[in-house]
Design a protein that fits this description.
Elements lengths: L1 H15 L25 E2 L5 E2 L27 E4 L5 E7 L4 E6 L4 E5 L5 E5 L7 E3 L5 E4 L6 E4 L5 E5 L1 E2 L2 E2 L6 E3 L5 E5 L14 E6 L5 E7 L5 E6 L5 E6 L4 E7 L5 E9 L7 E3 L5 E5 L2 E5 L5 E5 L7 E5 L5 E6 L2 E6 L2
Antiparallel strand pairs: 1-2, 3-28, 4-5, 5-6, 6-7, 8-9, 9-10, 10-11, 12-13, 14-15, 15-16, 16-17, 18-19, 19-20, 20-21, 22-23, 23-24, 24-25, 26-27, 27-28
């Protein structure tokens, strides 16, 4: 009888406390699995903390992956240089606030200074695509020189690649640079008579930091791989093909090696040089001007340019200025 009386007493105490001894530290879940009882804030599925009435987020912008059109709020295209032979290969050097670009016809690399003046940087230099490495050495796709070369800050030039399996390269055109030091470059026949090609195809190559040269695209000489660029996280390599106007992409492994190929987008024609912004939007010059594609290949639109655009790059103090080389003229446009 004492045991029964004690059990009844314990049951009465349990029921009087609301059936839970931990209601101050836990929350009930509703029938749909959602958490109830959050009176001051709720966590949405993207990880943003918001007030329950939908007012201003506590952490605005965190986790926001909504694509934004980079052409919204764009400025007017401005001419900043003219009367050149054939401009290509723009490359911005941030520590100097200077733009370097190639005049293929004049065998000259020019520099646009921060004050707007333009001066020859290196003359009597076969040139096309340019890229500065982490040591501020200038990589040069020499085109008519048929080499991938490197110019150090002392003015000394060295050849990094000029042959593949003993055969002379066609005419290295454009360059992309991995943070591990690997260099990717295109090799169409623009600087030679295509019938004289020793490698026998238009190619795309990878030169490792250790100096090993491999080729992951070799196709008809008229396929003409041209512009080349790496995505911001360096897991995708894009190549523009002038003959078809198509852009292909390759998966890039963490060590810089090349994986599977996939189609990305098709331009209006004559696809050429390209640059990618921090959001992964691809700006590619074509017969239409500068076409702009989202990371999924959707076309945002086009920037009209007074001349046939050949190449482009981003620069300026906030990396929001698009510099465009277009045949005889140099242009710029400020992005929002």
């Amino acid at each position: 009888m004492r045991k029964l009386t004690l059990a009844i007493a314990i049951l009465i105490i349990y029921l009087s406390t609301g059936c839970s001894s931990s209601s101050d530290s836990t929350q009930d879940t509703g029938d749909d699995g959602s958490t109830e009882g959050q009176t001051t804030s709720e966590m949405d599925t993207s990880g943003n903390t918001e007030t329950t009435d939908g007012d201003t987020p506590v952490n605005p912008g965190d986790g926001d992956t909504t694509p934004t059109n980079p052409l919204d709020g764009i400025g007017e295209v401005q001419s900043i240089g003219s009367d050149f032979g054939f401009l290509e290969g723009p490359e911005y050097r941030r520590d100097q606030s200077a733009l370097y670009f190639s005049d293929i016809a004049a065998d000259t690399i020019f520099r646009l200074n921060d004050d707007g003046s333009i001066e020859p940087f290196r003359e009597n230099q076969p040139t096309n695509g340019l890229k500065f490495d982490s040591q501020n050495r200038l990589l040069i796709a020499t085109q008519s020189g048929r080499t991938l070369s490197r110019l150090d800050e002392a003015g000394n030039i060295s050849v990094l690649a000029d042959r593949f399996d003993g055969a002379l390269l066609n005419s290295p055109n454009d360059i992309a640079l991995h943070t591990n030091g690997d260099v990717y470059f295109t090799d169409p026949p623009f600087g030679i008579d295509p019938s004289t090609s020793e490698v026998g195809c238009a190619g795309v190559y990878r030169l490792t930091a250790e100096g090993d040269l491999s080729r992951f695209w070799c196709n008809g000489i008229d396929t003409r791989p041209n512009g080349i660029a790496l995505s911001p996280n360096q897991d995708t390599l894009y190549v523009a093909f002038t003959f078809t106007g198509q852009i292909l992409s390759w998966a890039v492994e963490q060590d810089g090696s090349i994986g599977e190929m996939a189609p990305f987008a098709t331009t209006e024609g004559s696809a050429d040089g390209m640059v990618i912004d921090a959001a992964g939007n691809l700006f590619v010059t074509s017969s239409a001007g500068v076409e702009v594609f989202a990371p999924d290949g959707t076309r945002w639109g086009v920037i009209a340019v007074p001349e046939q655009a050949a190449n482009c790059t981003l620069g300026g103090p906030d990396n929001k200025t698009l510099f465009i080389t277009a045949r005889t003229g140099l242009y710029s446009v400020v992005l929002e």
